[in-house]
């Protein structure tokens, strides 16, 4: 009986060891933003070639989807890093903490602009953020102050008589996307608050204000096109009347196919995003589990490559891909904090 018990215990121990070995891995796993994906992929390939280590696996899940995976737990069953085209939310930080993801390193890597593009075969659109809000909001102001009605606008000319008499058809990211979050905040809300009575609502009823400004119509004028920005570019080529919402880097890489709309007299360019004159621009991030550093091989090396001047500097290879670098002082401080594995406190997610 004792012998059988010992044998059973040995079998269990061997089984546990085998299971542990099965889930262990020797390559870095990165999830998250489709906007940061091409930058992260380039860094991963350069790191893999230079180090001789396995090239990190990069998966495009969207910022929200990436945060959900990242915050699910610690261990090799979970991603090491998540890319994000917006800052981590307080609710996401709290979820991480609750699931044992205690120490998180936040790395702001640069800036990106959100463009509203169309085919080069069409005329360049010149839009205000108010035009964008009125074209895409679920509810828009009615005839009297304080009145909201279901969005009645069918064409861009209905929104603004100076715009083309073309049906409103905008291809854009889903709610899990950081691009969608930033577009709602910077584009939609940026136009929404131009309407005085809605702007005043922010002080008295912030939730109602946000609902009005951020809720996108669902009657077919806005079409969720998934997390694949390349697919949006292809659809714009096929339909010259449609517009698409995606990051500046995809515009930069596809300038022979699509063109960015001019927003409030500012064209989306590397310089206009860098100096923040372009109205719809945002910072880009990635987040790292400190507990995985030294457990999954290569994380420190990958971080060093990403935060090197040859990668994210003003003349770095990421700027060639359309990423707008941080100012020099900020970039150097961020690189030092990253290499020293300085964890965020949680206050950052509240900003």
Q: Explain this structure to me?
A:
The protein has 15 helices and 13 strands. Strands 1, 2, 3, 4, 8, 9, 10, 11 and 13 form a 9-stranded mixed beta sheet that branches. A two-stranded parallel ribbon has the order 5-12. The protein has a two-stranded antiparallel sheet with strand order 6-7. The chain folds into 2 domains: 23-111 and 283-350, D-Maltodextrin-Binding Protein, domain 2 (3-Layer(aba) Sandwich), CATH 3.40.190; 113-282, Periplasmic binding protein-like II (D-Maltodextrin-Binding Protein, domain 2, 3-Layer(aba) Sandwich). The protein has helices at 2-23, 37-51, 63-70, 90-98, 129-136, 156-159, 178-192, 196-204, 206-214, 229-238, 248-253, 270-274, 299-306, 309-312, 328-339; strands at residues 29-32, 57-58, 81-84, 104-119, 126-127, 139-141, 148-150, 170-172, 222-224, 243-247, 258-260, 262-263, 281-289. Helix content is 41%, strand content 17%. By secondary structure, it is an alpha/beta fold.
Topology:
Layout: H1 2-23, E1 29-32, H2 37-51, E2 57-58, H3 63-70, E3 81-84, H4 90-98, E4 104-119, E5 126-127, H5 129-136, E6 139-141, E7 148-150, H6 156-159, E8 170-172, H7 178-192, H8 196-204, H9 206-214, E9 222-224, H10 229-238, E10 243-247, H11 248-253, E11 258-260, E12 262-263, H12 270-274, E13 281-289, H13 299-306, H14 309-312, H15 328-339
Parallel strand pairs: 1-2, 1-3, 5-12, 8-9, 8-10
Antiparallel strand pairs: 3-13, 4-10, 4-11, 4-13, 6-7
Helix pairs in contact: 2-13, 5-7, 7-9, 8-9
